[in-house]
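User: structure tokens for this one?
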Amino acid sequence: MTAVAGPAAARAEAEVLRTRSLARVKTGRRKGTAQSIRTGISAAVIVLWCLLPFYWMVVTAFRDVGYTFDTTPWPTHFTLDNFATAFSTSLGNHLGRALLNSLFIGACVTVIALLIGTFAAYALARLEFRFKGIVFGIVLGASMFPGVALITPLFQFFTNIHWMGTYQALIIPSISFVLPLTVYVLTSFFREMPWDLEEAARIDGCTQGQAFRKVILPLAAPAVFTTAILAFISSWNEYLISSQLSSDATQPVTVAIASFAGSQPHQEPYTAVMAAGTIVTIPLVILVLIFQRRIVAGLTAGGVKG
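Assistant:
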């Protein structure tokens, strides 16, 4: 009896253990599913919160002027006249020229910031020199300086040298705000790159400059590209300084939209402004959609060391 009961008891105990194990697995799966559902709901709420203002801008851009304040969540009395009005010069709008100005200013700011920021970031990350930490702190501190405090001195300085209303008066201040971002992002990336690659290039006969140009810079291309996108977007969206230092011929698109005037006194052309905002946002959306893989690669390229 004992010999027979022994295997039966063992099988019963194994069955109990298996049942408990399956119960734990099912409980873990339910918890994992619940966690995934909560994460999905949270992500959806965040996405809706971020996209809702843009969606409402697009909806308003396609509405007839007489239904500007309609609360229907889709375009009622659909029309494309608002986009024609946005480009109309009869209302004092110069959106086409302003778009070209923003493209030119953004391209200049991005190129100059990358040329200076790449070398500065490499020096801060890979070279040893005195007061390196202080220099890096000054670079970061410059990005925290409020732009409104610079308007008066910049206005006076550019007036004295007869630069008011010129492109350089808009490009140089933008560089001062974009450059710290460029240096910070690229410094973090260069610090995570393995030293072995540079040392191997030096052993093969490369100078430090050649090792940077032939080895380090090609590997840093994803980070450089990502930084260029961020720098261009930052320059494209700049308004405060440009509103004070630009002229009708050089004003960027952000200033042009703010200066839209209605066909009648004290009338704000909301639908035309929304149409112009949609037009201005489209290039950034297309830019991100086309280069999203490179942007993600650049943001994660320095995440693993070795």
